[in-house]
Sequence to fold (392 residues):
Amino acid sequence: MDNTIIILSILGAYEKWGDDSPNHIGLDSYTFCTALGDVEANKQLRRHWATWVTEEDFIQLASSGIDTIRVPVGDWIFVPYGPYANCFAGALDEIDRILALAKKYKLNILFDIHAMKGSQNANDNSGKASVHWNNPNSYEKVLSASWMGTFDPITLTTEVNSSYMTHSLQVIDNILELYKGHDNVVGIEAVNEPWYYTPIDELKEFYWNVYQLVQSKAPHWISLFHDSFRLDIDTWGTFLMNCDNFAFDSHLYLAWQDPTPISTYLFYTCDRAFYLKQVEKAHIPVVIGEWSLATDNCALWLNGLNNNVYGYPKKKCEMIKCPDPYMGFDQPGAPPDSSKGMQDPFGTSGVSTPLYGMCPRDSEFEDDDKATKDLSFAQLEVYESTHGQFFW
Fold:
């Protein structure tokens, strides 16, 4: 889910809550639920669901020739636990609404388990970010993800504990039982972006178990497996050899490249075509599960609340008036107060924050319309050589 507008109300946290600030701050879905409490969090989620995705969106997607939507979900929706259980009440009804709209406009659905118990990558998109609070208004990211077990940040290894993976298999089994009869559900992604430090043998074992489960209950579904940021023939060349109805998901972004002229971004994109074709020739089916037109890290809170990645953004961001709140002007804290500059809490990795009612956005190229169009067509053409692609 997109927490951006919802959590604007926590800016200036220390002034409001003092030393207790960290308990009132939502950095991710988990702390969104704990900070607001069951009732208020669920109220805001239901408002978000009703306005973030509407029937008009499906009409536009269908008219644009889109055939499949990748739908991100948290594992807690299907096996409730912790603060998510009441906070996300009604999520299954919301999925039913999405499925009905997709069917009405002849669109397929691919489920993507975007957030896993224990966190598969330490980021907020996993449901619970790994952070340490240095003081009531400053936090830092921590190198830790527990989905596969206890991670050692010194040796960069994991003491494997399969309990969370067993939980994940139950989540997938529940999804299969709920939706295997829906004719416009075409598949499932087992886990989104397990980080590079994920033990590869254990990940392959988990993927194999998922594949067998899906084949046993919904053999018409595709099983999609993220490459763990290791899309290479040596890693995946013999995995699932002679099997069908599966593909590897690779996320190809340009936003973490060094700033260059548009011609260089086009070169990067076209250079990917050769490698993707080599991977496909090695009988490794690939789906580009996420790509975008961003060429920098300027988008507000892309890398966390009032935070960024070390060294980013690498070029000056354009500041524009912050957008109106999509849930209405009665939304607490939105839009940001135009009389105030930077407000805590702050991450220690970089800066991304509203400033006097202005928000950062991607910087523009000279002749930006042409550059954006050229980059769009280049990526669309290159990724057509794979088994599919999703704009993210």
About this structure: The radius of gyration is 21 Å.
